[in-house]
Amino acid sequence: MGNGRARALPLALALLLAFSDIAVVAAQGTERIQGSAGDVLEDDPVGRLKVYVYELPPKYNKNIVGRDPRCLKHMFATEIFIHRFLVSSAVRTLNPEEADWFYTPVYTTCDLTPWGHPLTTKSPRMIRSAIQYISKHWPYWNRTEGADHFFVTPHDFGACFYFQEAKAIERGVLPVLRRATLVQTFGQKNHVCLKEGSITIPPYTPPQKMRTHLVPPETPRSIFVYFRGLFYDTSNDPEGGYYARGARASVWENFKNNPMFDISTDHPPTYYEDMQRSVFCLCPLGWAPWSPRLVEAVVFGCIPVIIADDIVLPFADAIPWEEIGVFVAEDDVTKLDTILTSIPMEEILRKQRLLANPSMKQAMLFPQPAEPRDAFHQILNGLARKLPHGKGVFLKPGQKVLNWTEGAPEDLKPW
């Protein structure tokens, strides 16, 4: 299924080309993003907002990383690197009286199981504990109950803090965060776990690691459709059909023997190189609508085929997803071959030229140290566009809006 199949694919595609209008080529050059999206992508947030970073006891952040450094590399690591970025950022203010936003650095995804999965049952307790701490030591939470505060919640379903959708919906957004702005990877329209006003961001992928695998831009894209990952999550969904709402299973059952589709559960050492040799990269939903493949596809210039109904994509006001990607409804997965082979060559070439734009790639990454126009700066741009805060964010003396006793009983335990 792995490299042998990849080597055989150009021959299969050559045969296909003889009977179709599809050509597999790589576009040369780049194309600037036109209109408001390009302008937003190139915004500079410095001078447009000031952020105050709370100093919390290290048990909420640094000590957790010290116990398990694996969380520096997984797809939820955004919360760690945003904290590090803000501490040295030009938008940081040490004077809370002049702050537009307040940030509470809590690493809710860094307490991992032996298998590397976040222990989400502890996350709500950590958040509640941290908020109790800042409300006791500073006056700023109390005057708005968090309406001028933002939190980074990179779980599968954001501040619903659970990886399975049914349970996440049952839990809902943590009640004490209902006035705060959430910076989260999860985004799905009309979903209880997507709070209005949230800023949707890409998941974390290691920028330095990806950059070490770059191939020459003139490398032919000889793989038509590429995907590596799970099709069935038998450990968490033993009966099948619930994981990825059946979309991944449908991809496998319909296209496992199709020579145009290089798909497998194997994860070869040439994974990043293979994406750069592919025209289309499948980005189906998993437990949540998003996955790191979306970032990888954009960075490696592989046209993302997004299979996730109603997904809200990262930085949607800055990145023209409709122009760079292909959207396939979950119910239409069985038609993937027809849909992709029907796309005109000029449209494929234009998508490739847009994906070659360095600003587009930069906006999907969290490099250390930060770089101009990267994902850190796009988050700050999103926060700046939400300013100024309306007068309604400030409560009258003694006024309370949030109910601290609301929520699941296990969330109310001390942390």
From TrEMBL:
Q: Which GO MF terms does the UniProt record name?
A: glycosyltransferase activity
Provide GO CC annotations from the record. Golgi membrane
Superkingdom field = Eukaryota
Q: Which UniProt keywords apply?
A: Glycosyltransferase, Golgi apparatus, Signal, Signal-anchor, Transferase, Transmembrane
Which residue ranges does the record assign to the Exostosin GT47 domain?
48-343
- Main localization is Golgi
- What membrane topology is given? Single-pass type II membrane protein
| UniProt-listed Pfam families | Exostosin_GT47
Any coiled-coil ranges, and where? none
**InterPro entries, A to Z:** Exostosin, Exostosin_GT47
Span of the secretion signal? 1-27
Protein location? Golgi apparatus membrane
Q: Which family is annotated? A: Belongs to the glycosyltransferase 47 family.
Name of this protein: Exostosin GT47 domain-containing protein
Provide the organism lineage as a comma list. Eukaryota, Viridiplantae, Streptophyta, Embryophyta, Tracheophyta
